[in-house]
Automatic annotation (TrEMBL):
Descriptive protein name: Uricase
Short name of one Pfam family: Uricase
Organism field: Nonomuraea endophytica
Enzyme Commission code(s) on record: 1.7.3.3
Gene Ontology biological process: purine nucleobase metabolic process; urate catabolic process
Pathway: Purine metabolism; urate degradation; (S)-allantoin from urate: step 1/3
UniProt keywords, alphabetically: Oxidoreductase, Purine metabolism
Catalytic site positions: 12, 57, 255
Residues that hold urate according to the record: 57-58, 161, 178, 227, 253
Enzyme type, top EC level: oxidoreductase
Biological function: Catalyzes the oxidation of uric acid to 5-hydroxyisourate, which is further processed to form (S)-allantoin.
Positions bound to O2: 57, 253
Similarity-based family: Belongs to the uricase family.
Amino acid sequence: MPVILGPNRYGKAETRVVRVVRDGGVHHIKDINVSSALSGDMADVHLTGSNEAVLPTDTQKNTAFAFARKHGIGQIEDFALLLARHYVGSQPTIGHARVEIEEYGWRRIPVSGGPSEPRHSFVRDGQEVRTCVVHHDEDGRTTVVSGLKDLVVLNSTGSEFHGYIEDEYTTLKPTTDRILATAVSAQWRHSGESHDFGASYDFGTSYDEVRRCLLEAFAGTHSLSLQQTLYAMGRRVLDTREEVCEIRFAMPNKHHFLVDLAPFGLDNDNEVYYAADRPYGLIEGAVLRDDAPDAAFAWE
Ligand SMILES: O=c1[nH]c(=O)c2[nH]c(=O)[nH]c2[nH]1
């Protein structure tokens, strides 16, 4: 039965590029996900195994990083046009380029009482989920745990990590300036008893204020580890919100690796990062008052 090659394309999907622009002490970030798909004179690649027409997908990934450094990232449409024109314009075998870009929005974390313009701390737009778990039993015991998950935050400086154990498998380089990013999952236990949780108990304000404490402590802590930041966030909540007696965290360390652009003749002074999604460090911990009431079934 005769068989022919149908439509085809190839490329690098989901190159996660983060660019930090430093405007004095004020940082701006662009966080994008670039997918390129190229097509053209690719019959031989499929039929004979000749790769003469192929611009490797690895090169497409590198081009996204190098262009971020060289040209900056403005409007994603402009960046996509730049890449697409580059592929079609530079390679005779490539007749068509499809470049898809998603951009993730970040807002500055407002810090009350701090400098009017927070400079390098961001919260990702519109992701988080508010949660609660309530238990109530026939003996009239009630527990309330409030929480949030997927509150994605990032400090583009003010984070170090060094002084750790180095054994024969350690390759991580110590750093005094890195991006610290995490998706905060936190659950906090209200210390009240059943009769406290009446109509006048303001869970709305409590939630807003705990969230504010978490963001402010994240933004305001010069971090020597995500563990230290976790503790500072928990402590801020317990110092500020008397209705909360315990808070538990799970925080993935969303690694951002500096891209080596030297092979393309470009420097990279903490500007262009590769945002890796896995594997990730997972930092978990609880912070509680030493006289916190018994948790009963709150965490079940
Ligand atoms: O803040 C961090 N804590 C760690 O325990 C750790 N481990 C690691 O490789 N990087 C980091 N970063």
